[in-house]
Amino acid sequence: MNKIDLLKERLVTHRFADFVPDYPRDRSNTYADVSSWLVERTTSEWRGTEGLHVHLTQATDGDQVHVVLFAVSEMIFKRNLERSGLI
């Protein structure tokens, strides 16, 4: 999930449940609660055959983008080694 900076900014002035009807109205409108709900919701709906890894990012933060791209590269590399029988 990208644009966490915008999410944090909007949560100060807007109620998340007003825009996402599935978000429980009794749940806090903090970034921590909203982002954890988004991760829970995304992973619970996942029907893919491979694992799902959720990263909360801000694309303007080069360090975060680097960490995410490195993690993805590592997962792909490891998966390819496993499929080839090398590990």
Describe this structure as you would to a colleague.
- By secondary structure, the protein is mainly alpha-helical.
- The chain has one domain.
- Helix content is 55%, strand content 0%.
- It contains three helices and no strands.
- The protein is elongated, with a radius of gyration of 16 Å.
Gist?
The chain is mostly helical. The chain has helices at 4-13, 31-45, 62-84.
Helix/strand-derived class? mainly alpha
For the record, give the distance between the C-alpha atoms at the N and C termini, rounded to a whole number: 31 Å
Number of domains: 1
**For the residues shown, what is the average pLDDT?**
88
How many DSSP-defined strands? 0
Rounded to an integer in angstroms, the radius of gyration calculated over CA atoms is 16 Å
Overall, the morphology is elongated
Q: Helix and strand succession?
A: HHH
Tell me the fraction of residues in β-strands, as a range. Answer: under 5%
Proportion of residues in helical segments: 55-70%
The number of helices is: 3
Please describe the biggest sheet, giving its number of strands, its sense, and whether it closes into a barrel. Answer: none
- Oligomer state of the chains in this structure: single chain
Low-pLDDT parts are none
